[in-house]
Amino acid sequence: MCPLCIATAALMVVGTASTGGLATLAMNKLFRAQNAAEKNNSELKSKENRS
After folding, report:
1. Distance between CA atoms of 36 and 33, rounded to whole angstroms?
2. In the prediction, which pLDDT does 16 show?
């Protein structure tokens, strides 16, 4: 393989890996926000039931 082909292949691998990492971070942030909202809702409901 020529050096240009190797460099292009390496860039493709790195680009895919970084995109996957960014997608993972975005999904973690989304799920954390949803879990926090669900936790707050359940705490509010339990407080209302006690009153």
Report:
1. 5
2. 82
